[in-house]
Design goal:
The chain is of the alpha/beta class. The chain is built from 19 helices and twelve strands. Helices cover 49% and strands 16% of the residues. Bound molecules: NADPH dihydro-nicotinamide-adenine-dinucleotide phosphate.
Length: 448
Amino acid sequence: MSYVDEVLARVKEKNASEPEFLQAVDEVLNSLRPVIEANEEMYKKQALLERICEPERQIKFRVPWVDDNGQVQVNTGYRVQFNSAIGPYKGGIRLHPSVNIGIIKFLGFEQIFKNSLTGLPIGGGKGGSDFDPKGKSDNEIMRFCQSFMTELCRHIGADTDVPAGDIGTGAREIGYMFGQYKRIRNLYEGVLTGKGLTFGGSLARTEATGYGLLYLTNEMLKTNGIELAGKTVCVSGAGNVAIYATQKAQQLGAKVVTVSDSTGWIYDAEGIDVELLREVKEVKRARLDAYAAARPSAVYHDKKAEGSNVWETKCDIALPCATQNELGIEDAKKLVANGVIAVAEGANMPTTLEATEYFQKNGVLFAPGKAANAGGVATSALEMSQNSERLSWSFEEVDTKLQGIMVNIFRNLDAAAKKYGFEGNYVVGANIAGFEKVATAMLAQGVV
Ligand code: NDP
């Protein structure tokens, strides 16, 4: 049995109840085979893969809080500090009822390679809670965030672990968490990113993941002799990543015709009106049917009633920006039959392994999330630099750096894929390019 197969078998046995984590490990280790095989004896002796698949530390804690009726509620909080070989742990906090240790581990594992790909000194981590922010009052959100941070603050710090936003954690939640951290630790430091602009946040951080997704997609298309301008794009999701991906795609001359949320989706023949979408989702925090009600060119589809989703829409480019495993094999078949040219993941692992392979077999350009959505964490690292310098850079300065980083990520993964004989396979390229730096750093630091 090869070293990769041995480790895969052991990881499966040890983490049997964590399907998303196993899916992520399976994808990464399988695509690393060429690199591992070239150094098999040494990596095995050093147990490098076993170490990379085992978090350095995982913290699980009780989060009690009082709702508006005076009733005590209890949620579970998590922080997985996965790998600090190349820098302090860095990764978002997800607040969603589906959160469990397996989800946080899959996200933390992906984050190791993503953060490495950015070229910046940040390790991999992730956190969250099964708290559902939907339908909660502002005060309930604040009480939850304060309780969550009351425990988390012992484990993080500007040079230790720097969390950020993710699903369900936006500027409001980061603000409440930062306030509580500062109060308890008596430290004004860059311990969280995605902060408000008046207290250490970076310009362009809000836009960064969506914009970065388009910068990388554009570079991938250009490298393959294709123009983004004039293309029809399907986006899923209607949150932070989806909104700013839509905005940048339209600025670059493409037309985005769909967005979705957890209950339904919009087809807008005239192209999504980003300002209206922001008003509905960011200001009113309403469902997407409110978008359709305000825009005659838009049609709303109820997901449950129709059993449909955005992927049945004919498009040139698909950008899944909602959540993991939202694009399966049947969706991939529809997209390919409708002539899709490229798929780039704005969300983390939104495409199932089967669907990814189907795209690749059918000649669809495919950019994996750990590369395509790395603009968010890269700009978070730029926020950390500004906090350390106690300076703020202009929007243009941050955006220009972000563009440079995304183009660089694409070039590095393209080169890594070519070097190992997998030209055009950007999944293999991203995993190898991300892995090499982490592996070198881990080996240099000894058995820790
Ligand atoms: P948001 O919470 O802002 O938005 C998430 C969107 O996806 C919402 O429209 C939400 O619908 C929808 N959604 C969430 N869960 C589900 C589900 N189970 N089924 C269907 N729809 C769902 O999150 P973000 O935009 O920040 O994150 C989206 C993805 O991008 C995640 O995978 C995240 O890990 C990834 N990502 C985010 C980064 C960032 O900087 N924010 C950085 C890198 C990756 P509804 O409105 O109904 O809740």
